[in-house]
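Title: Prediction job returns without error message
Component: structure pipeline
Severity: low
Priority: P3
Assignee: unassigned

Description:
Job completed but the reporter wants confirmation the result is attached to the right record. Sequence as submitted:
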Amino acid sequence: MDNNQVIKLLTDYRSYKFALNNLGGMMIDSEMQWMFKMGIYDERVRSRLSNQDRTSDQGRYSRIVTLLESAVDFVLSDDQKTIIQLKYMERNKLNLSEIADRLHKDRKTVSTQHKKAINSLCKAMVPLKQDYMEITNLDHMFDPEWVYKEPA
């Protein structure tokens, strides 16, 4: 996996996380107990999204989110982890200059740490295939004229 692919995954991290959280199914709550979570797709389009599609998407998004979170947590130093989280994974993303100001560090130091973090994540993300990175657009399902057809 190259730098651009890792940056794209990090940039889309919140979209993957949102999609995963809204596919519904079995999830673990904060007290580590299994519960059934009704997702947005279950509420709005009960019969249009096949179980196979839901399971496939849930598996892909889960793998991406889990691999990203664990790679950032396990592979990177504390400074690198903070930089990556602030730049890509937080709701209000910051640029490198803003991160440098927040961390009271030189911008060049932050830039160097960012580059090293991306290189480390490239090695850690090798198991992820390109086809896992595509988010399936489901907008057509919310069109009242669209009807799901079972594969032959």
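Comment from assignee: result matches the submitted record. The radius of gyration is 18 Å.
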